[in-house]
Design brief:
By secondary structure, this protein is an all-alpha fold. The protein is built from 20 helices and 2 strands. It has a two-stranded antiparallel ribbon. Strand 1 and strand 2 form a beta hairpin. The longest helix is centred in the first third of the chain and has 57 residues.
């Protein structure tokens, strides 16, 4: 500020000095232009030049002020329209929420050109068109949304895919998401939506290829995505198991990400597929390795249904589990009963069946024991098991199983060995 004041004082002093110089040295000045000539005093010429400069400055200032007024008017008009557009956006969103979709779309579209956020106007208007099932109009509005903000391709695409999925346009949703995945390969919501679309299409092979990316993005932990993962694995496992393609089963399992291979449900599905495919050796090896580390009733149930090449070693392993972590777990007792039944040590099998069922009633257990008792020529006990099993299936209430003692000689093919461990008789 002081600098400008000093410059102004210098200019005033210079003008004053120049004026004094002109007045103290009067003279004539002649301006000649062709045949025309003009003669005047030097002081008059100086005054005219100064006046012309002042006039030019005033003209320029007035011109700038005129343009400034126009800009100010335009700014005022834009601010007024912007304020109306913001109010219209709020009202449009309210109308959209209340279900007045026609009114919402009109409000939002009419004021979009003047809005500070035209992208939001067009997206909300597209949603309104979608809700009234005007899908062509919806896609047109989404196109305008992209034109209003070229950087919002992913945001608009996600909204479009969501609405296409919601309206059952699975092919269109898949095409939209495939394009979005090219733009943003690691976008978590794009991957999640793509998984849902593939799940609805039952495109299990494509979903299988998507599982590693879903695992990396940590998207498989919620219940919905767990269901997608389970359905995918089950479908692919069943396909290979049905054809007996155990090599493809093993190869597929090895390619799955570690978090999936450590998932309990995935392990159970894989073990069941190996059993269905007829590869009980690989199935038993998998289950045995897991049960030696941690007990699992579901895997133990499957372990008792498979065929074992060395029943004696398998029974010894099961008895070690009984001594260790599993104890007198009813699932383990049922497993031992089935193993002894396979080995035709029916007296041992009968004892373990009875102990298991008295702790945890099981419809299949009742049936298996009843059939075993028929083989052992104990029809009365077999009938008792059938009755208990039937009542349990209807009432889901367990009852104490007390078999009638029988005295009969051992058959040569069914030795009655003493159990290495005394079964727990439960109730």
């Amino acid at each position: 500020m002081i600098f400008y004041l000093i410059v102004l004082l210098i200019v005033i002093a210079a003008v004053f000095w120049l004026g004094q110089l002109v007045l103290s040295n009067p003279g004539l000045t002649m301006i000649t232009w062709g045949v025309w000539s003009l003669e005047m005093k030097t002081a008059t010429l100086a005054a005219l030049v100064l006046l012309a400069c002042v006039g030019f400055y005033v003209f320029v200032a007035l011109l700038r002020h005129g343009f400034g007024l126009r800009r100010s008017f335009n700014r005022f008009r834009a601010a007024r329209l912007g304020s109306r557009a913001n109010r219209a956006l709020t009202q449009g969103l309210i109308q959209l929420t209340e279900g007045h979709w026609d009114k919402a779309e009109k409000l939002l579209v009419d004021h979009a050109p003047y809005s500070d956020t035209p992208l939001l106007n067009y997206l909300a208007a597209a949603r309104a068109a979608h809700m009234r099932e005007a899908y062509d109009r919806r896609d047109e509005l989404l196109k305008q949304a992209i034109e209003s903000d070229s950087k919002a391709n992913v945001a608009v695409g996600v909204s479009q895919a969501e609405m296409q999925f919601g309206s059952g346009q699975l092919e269109q949703a898949y095409a939209t998401l495939a394009r979005l995945r090219e733009l943003s390969p690691k976008h978590p919501y794009v991957l999640k939506l793509l998984a849902k679309v593939l799940y609805r299409q039952e495109n299990w092979e494509a979903l299988l290829g998507l599982l590693p990316d879903l695992a990396k993005q940590n998207l498989l932990k919620n219940a919905e995505m767990n269901a997608v993962q389970g359905a995918t694995l089950q479908a692919m496992f069943q396909q290979y198991a049905k054809d007996g393609q155990t090599d493809k089963l093993q190869s597929m399992w090895k390619k799955l990400p570690t978090p999936i291979r450590e998932n309990h449900a995935a392990i159970v599905l894989f073990a069941q597929a190996l059993h269905t495919a007829g590869d009980d050796l690989a199935c038993n090896s998998l289950i045995s390795g897991i049960l030696s580390k941690r007990w699992d009733d579901g895997l133990a149930d499957l372990f008792g249904r498979t065929q074992h090449h060395s029943l004696g070693n398998t029974i010894q392993q099961a008895e070690k589990w009984q001594l260790g972590q599993a104890g007198n777990n009813p699932a383990l007792l049922l497993l031992l009963a089935r193993l002894y039944n396979q080995q035709k040590l029916w007296g041992m099998a009968k004892s373990y069946y009875e102990s298991s069922l008295n702790q945890a009633p099981n419809a299949e257990g009742y049936l298996e024991l009843a059939e075993l008792l028929e083989t052992m020529k104990e029809p009365e006990n077999a009938q008792r098991c059938y009755r208990l099993g039937l009542r349990y299936c209807i009432r889901t209430e367990g009852e104490k199983l007390s078999l009638i003692p029988t005295q009969r000689p051992q058959s040569s093919h069914a030795p009655q060995a003493q159990p290495l461990l005394t079964p727990y008789n439960g109730l």
